[in-house]
């Protein structure tokens, strides 16, 4: 029996574990992580699908397009299913506003109803932006979606072990393949200097009258979820502070309030701060590591930065495909040994 460990229980780890277990139902798959559900970085995600190639460096355009389309199709199918509410996925339309013109986003032909804003539309906003576009996409309410993925994994009898992994050598005695979805933890565990933190901070409020999302080019966004609105944000490269900064909070609040003055009546619920694990390129590949006379097969899937939710299913499918190739290699070796005996 091939034994598999998926390390990391954010949205990427859960998605990858589910893809692998769904494709190989009889396989022994275990999820190992030191944080789960709302203790993960995924809990702080805005969850709006808008993965733009300009901010995802080093990935081949054809590969990124495939990841984007695969993820979009997955979430779109959930939206039009009878479990959309449980999964926390819904369509949402909104505006992206800029002070200068810029190239079209790479997801332009994936989302619905993409169009440029007219001059008349641009004048309705307080800061009178010079350029923008409107589209219909979706949001993923991560607290609900993570519980939904966990439920599916529990139904498939995938065990969860709470443990912090410091080195993959800890796993070599008990597992044959490790799927690495450890996010920013890969900096230490994999000695990966390409991964860098991008600090994010957001505020959750209750403002049910806001129905559209808004993104601007001056670090301001508003994303409506089922019962709350996500207000952000910050993109602070190489800042490892995971506590809420009051100056950043005030800056987020003032920027959002300037864009949407009615927020003055909103109920503030909670704050969040965390580190987006950014790597150029996102690492989806296999590796073999030797520890003495033993070896461990690794499938890496980490480094999504601020696009963890948007790309989670696409990279999970890609990682699962690479996993299947490793598994086939092991099975073929076993058959060759058996035939020689």
Automatic annotation (TrEMBL):
It holds the Pfam family DAO. GO terms for cellular component: peroxisomal matrix. Keywords: FAD, Flavoprotein, Oxidoreductase. It comes from the Eukaryota. Its main location: other. GO terms for molecular function: D-amino-acid oxidase activity; FAD binding. Transmembrane segments: none annotated. GO terms for biological process: D-amino acid catabolic process. Residues 3-320 form the FAD dependent oxidoreductase domain. FAD binds at residues 41-42. Its cofactor is FAD. It is found in: Peroxisome matrix. D-dopa binds at residues 221, 276, 306. The keyword Oxidoreductase applies. Belongs to the DAMOX/DASOX family. This is FAD dependent oxidoreductase domain-containing protein.
């Amino acid at each position: 029996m091939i034994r598999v460990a998926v390390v990391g229980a954010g949205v990427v780890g859960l998605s990858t574990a589910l893809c692998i277990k769904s494709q190989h139902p009889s396989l022994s798959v275990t999820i190992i992580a030191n944080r789960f559900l709302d203790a993960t970085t995924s809990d702080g995600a805005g969850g709006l699908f808008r993965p733009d190639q300009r901010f995802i460096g080093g990935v081949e355009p054809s590969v990124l397009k495939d990841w984007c389309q695969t993820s979009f199709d997955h979430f779109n199918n959930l939206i039009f299913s009878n479990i959309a509410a449980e999964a926390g996925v819904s369509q949402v339309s909104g505006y992206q506003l800029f002070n200068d013109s810029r190239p079209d986003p790479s997801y332009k032909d994936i989302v619905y109803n993409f169009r440029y804003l007219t001059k008349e539309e641009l004048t309705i906003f307080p800061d009178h932006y010079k350029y923008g576009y409107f589209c219909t996409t979706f949001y993923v309410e991560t607290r609900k979606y993570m519980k939904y993925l966990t439920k599916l994994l529990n139904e498939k009898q995938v065990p969860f072990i709470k443990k912090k992994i410091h080195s993959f050598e800890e796993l070599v005695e008990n597992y044959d393949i490790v799927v690495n979805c450890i996010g920013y933890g890969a900096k230490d565990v994999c000695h990966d200097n390409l991964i860098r933190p991008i600090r994010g901070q957001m505020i959750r409020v209750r403002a049910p009258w806001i129905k559209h999302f808004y993104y601007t080019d001056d670090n301001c966004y508003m994303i409506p979820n089922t019962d709350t609105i996500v207000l952000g944000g910050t993109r602070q490269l190489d800042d490892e502070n995971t506590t809420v900064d009051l100056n950043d909070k005030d800056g987020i609040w003032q920027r959002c309030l300037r864009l949407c003055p009615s927020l003055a009546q909103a109920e503030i619920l909670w704050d969040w701060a965390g580190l987006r694990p950014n790597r150029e390129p996102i690492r989806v590949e296999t590796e073999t590591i030797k520890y003495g006379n033993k070896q461990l097969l690794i499938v890496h899937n980490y480094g999504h930065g601020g696009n963890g939710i948007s790309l989670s299913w696409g990279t999970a499918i890609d990682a699962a495909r690479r996993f299947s190739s490793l598994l086939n290699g092991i099975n073929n070796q076993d058959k060759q040994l058996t035939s020689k005996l």
